[in-house]
Design a protein that fits this description.
By secondary structure, the chain is of the alpha/beta class. It has 18 helices and 19 strands. Among the domains are: about 100 residues; about 220 residues, P-loop containing nucleotide triphosphate hydrolases (Rossmann fold, 3-Layer(aba) Sandwich); about 70 residues, Arc Repressor Mutant, subunit A, CATH 1.10.10. It is extended.
C-alpha cells in the first residue's frame, strides 16, 4: 500500500524494495505517469531515476537495470514495477475526484444549535439580533445593506431566490463585505468565485448550483456573462448548442444544459452596465460617506491593536450559519400583493415591482417561525402567509434603492451633485467654474468634465457665461436637481400602500373574530361581502400560527 507522507512524497513498500516517489504524481495529465523514483534495496546504494511508467521501453529498461545492479530475479522486479504502476494509478484517480474542490466536512447542526436557532427565529427582536451579529462579524456601518445581502443569501433554498448586485467604487470594501458574508454561510450552501467567465456557466454541474448561493467578487471585468446570469436566475435553465469535433474530425452539434435557480450576490464598480439592461437583480450602493470612512478606520485601528475578540466573531458567524440551516424551504403567499402600487417616478416599474414582491417573500421566509400558516382549499398545499410587518420592513430596506431607480443621474454624478450643492451653500454663491471646483476638491479634470457634462445634459446645471478657451464656462445649478419632491412622492405612495394593507389586515382579523362568535346562519345573514370577494377570502384557510402568538408588531 502507498504511504502518503505529503502530496510531494509517497512511499511504496514491497517485499524486496522500498520505493519513494519524489514530487508526487502529476495530476495535470492522464496519458503519462512521469515519476521521480528513489529505490532502496537492503543496504545497497540508493538508485534514483525519472521514468514514465506508461512507457514500455522505459519500464523494461528500469527492470533490466535493477536486475543487473542488485542481481534480483527478473520476475520479482517485473511484479514490483507492475504493482507500483497500479497503486500510483489508483492514487491519482482518487485525487482527481477532488481536484479543484475544497474538501470540507458538511456543516453539522447539533440539537443544541438547532434549539437556539429556532429560539432566535421566534424572537420578537430577530431583526435587531441579525444586525448585531453581522456587526460583530466585522461588517461596520452597512446595517441595511448587510441585512439585505444576508437575507438574499439565506433565500438560496427558495424556489424563487433573491439576487443582489453590490455597487461601489474601488476601495470601498465590496470584496471585504462579500467575504464576511460568505463566512456566515453554512458549508456547501454557496460557491465563492473571484472571477468567472461567461462560458463557464454552461459547464456547471446542476447539483453545484441548484439551491446554492453564487458569490462573485468581481463582475465588472466582463458584461458578457450578464445575459446568461439573468437567464439562469429568472428561468432556472441555460441551454447552449455549439459545434464540436469528434475523434475523426467530423463536426457535430453538442448541447449543454444547466438547470437550477440560484441566488446571485456579486460586486461591481459601476451601475452604468447594469441599469440599461434591466437585469432581475437588486442593486444596492455601499455607504461612502465621511462618517462611514471614520467608522471603518476606527475598526481597522482596533483590529491592528488586537482589541477585536475573534472568539466572539467566530461565535456570531456560527450562530448565523445555524439560523440559515434551521430555515425550512416553505412556500409563501402574499394576500396583500394586489394592494401594492408603485409611483410613476420609479424607473423600470415592472422590474421594480417584481423585485419588491420577491423581497417581501424573502422577509416572510426569514420570519417564517412568526407567521401564520394557511392551506389552499383547492389543492391542500401549505403556505406561509405574509404579514403587513413584512411589507413595511421591505419598504424600509428597499426605499433607498427605489429612490435611486427614480434618479436619472448615475450614482457618482448624484454624489458629486450633492457635494456641489453643499459647497455652493458654504461659499454663498450660485455660480461656479471648473477651476473653482478643482480648488476646493481633488478631482481629475476628465472626471470633473464628465460630471459637468452629465449635469448639463439632464438640465441639472446650465451654462450662464464664460468661454471654453478663456477661463472656462460659468455654470449655475437649476431647481431640477432637487430630488426631494420625487422622494416625497415615493414616500407618500409607499405609506399609502402600507395604510391600505394594514386596514385590510385589521378588517380580516375583525371578520374572523366575528365569524368565530356567530353561528353559521347568522354569519350568512350579516355578511356583506360579494361572491367574488368571498371566493378570494376563502381560497386560503388559516390552520395555525407557528408560535401560538399574535404575529403583529413582531419586528
Amino acid at each position: 500500500m502507498i504511504k502518503v507522507h505529503n502530496p510531494h512524497l509517497l512511499t511504496v513498500q514491497t517485499s524486496i524494495f522500498t520505493i519513494d516517489v519524489l514530487g508526487g504524481v502529476d495530476l495535470s495529465t492522464v496519458e503519462r505517469m512521469v515519476c521521480t523514483l528513489r529505490v532502496t534495496y537492503k543496504a545497497e546504494p540508493i538508485y534514483r531515476t525519472t521514468i514514465d511508467l506508461y512507457n514500455e521501453n522505459q519500464t523494461d529498461k528500469l527492470i533490466r537495470t535493477l536486475c543487473d545492479k542488485w542481481e534480483v530475479k527478473l520476475l520479482d522486479v517485473s511484479k514490483t514495477v507492475y504493482n507500483l504502476t497500479l497503486q500510483l494509478e489508483d492514487y491519482r484517480l482518487e485525487q482527481l475526484k477532488f481536484k479543484g474542490q475544497q474538501q470540507r466536512s458538511a456543516f453539522a447542526l447539533s440539537i443544541e444549535d438547532k434549539k437556539q436557532a429556532l429560539k432566535t427565529l421566534e424572537s420578537s427582536t430577530l431583526l435587531n439580533q441579525l444586525t448585531t451579529k453581522l456587526n460583530t462579524t466585522g461588517i461596520i456601518g452597512e446595517d441595511d445593506n448587510a441585512t439585505i445581502l444576508f437575507m438574499a443569501l439565506a433565500s438560496h433554498k427558495l424556489n424563487n431566490p433573491f439576487s443582489v448586485l453590490c455597487l461601489a467604487k474601488s476601495g470601498m470594501g465590496k470584496s471585504y463585505l462579500l467575504q464576511k458574508l460568505a463566512e456566515c454561510m453554512p458549508h456547501g450552501s454557496y460557491s465563492f468565485h473571484t472571477q468567472i467567465s461567461a462560458n463557464a456557466l454552461y459547464y456547471f454541474n446542476s447539483n453545484d448550483i441548484q439551491n446554492k448561493a453564487l458569490l462573485i467578487e468581481d463582475l465588472e471585468w466582463t458584461t458578457q456573462m450578464l445575459a446568461p446570469l439573468a437567464t439562469l436566475q429568472s428561468q432556472g435553465k441555460l441551454v447552449k448548442t455549439r459545434a464540436t469535433k469528434d475523434k475523426d474530425g467530423m463536426l457535430h452539434s453538442t448541447t449543454f444544459e444547466v438547470n437550477g435557480k440560484l441566488c446571485l450576490v456579486a460586486c461591481a464598480y459601476s451601475d452604468k452596465n447594469f441599469e440599461s439592461l434591466s437585469l432581475p437583480f437588486l442593486m444596492v450602493h455601499l455607504n461612502h460617506s465621511q462618517a462611514q470612512d471614520i467608522a471603518i478606520m476606527d475598526y481597522q485601528r482596533k483590529l491592528s491593536a488586537g482589541l477585536i475578540n475573534f472568539a466572539e466573531v467566530q461565535q456570531a458567524q456560527h450562530e448565523l450559519k445555524c439560523l440559515i440551516a434551521s430555515l425550512e424551504n416553505v412556500s409563501v403567499v402574499n394576500p396583500y400583493a394586489p394592494l401594492i402600487e408603485l409611483p410613476n417616478d420609479i424607473a423600470h416599474p415592472r422590474k421594480s415591482l417584481l423585485l419588491l414582491l420577491n423581497f417581501i417573500e424573502v422577509i416572510t421566509y426569514i420570519f417564517q417561525r412568526q407567521r401564520a400558516t394557511v392551506a389552499c382549499q383547492q389543492t391542500g398545499e401549505i403556505f406561509t402567509q405574509t404579514h403587513p410587518d413584512d411589507i413595511e420592513l421591505a419598504f424600509k430596506l428597499l426605499k433607498n434603492s427605489l429612490f435611486r431607480r427614480a434618479d436619472e443621474l448615475s450614482t457618482t454624478a448624484r454624489g458629486f451633485y450633492a457635494w456641489l450643492s453643499s459647497y455652493l451653500q458654504e461659499a454663498r454663491s450660485v455660480q461656479f467654474t471648473a477651476l473653482d471646483i478643482r480648488r476646493a476638491k481633488a478631482i481629475h479634470p476628465r472626471t470633473l468634465n464628465r460630471y459637468l457634462q452629465e449635469l448639463t445634459l439632464y438640465s441639472y446645471a446650465t451654462i450662464v457665461g464664460g468661454n471654453k478657451h478663456r477661463g472656462g464656462y460659468i455654470y449655475k445649478l437649476t431647481e431640477l436637481g432637487n430630488q426631494t419632491s420625487a422622494e416625497n412622492r415615493i414616500e407618500q405612495a409607499l405609506q399609502s400602500n402600507l395604510e391600505k394593507i394594514k386596514k385590510q389586515f385589521s378588517e380580516t382579523v375583525s371578520q374572523k373574530a366575528v365569524s368565530n362568535s356567530q353561528t353559521p346562519e347568522n354569519t350568512t345573514k350579516n355578511s356583506r361581502t360579494t361572491p367574488k370577494e368571498k371566493n378570494a377570502k376563502t381560497q386560503f384557510l388559516t390552520i395555525k400560527n407557528t408560535t401560538g402568538k399574535n404575529p403583529r408588531n413582531l419586528i
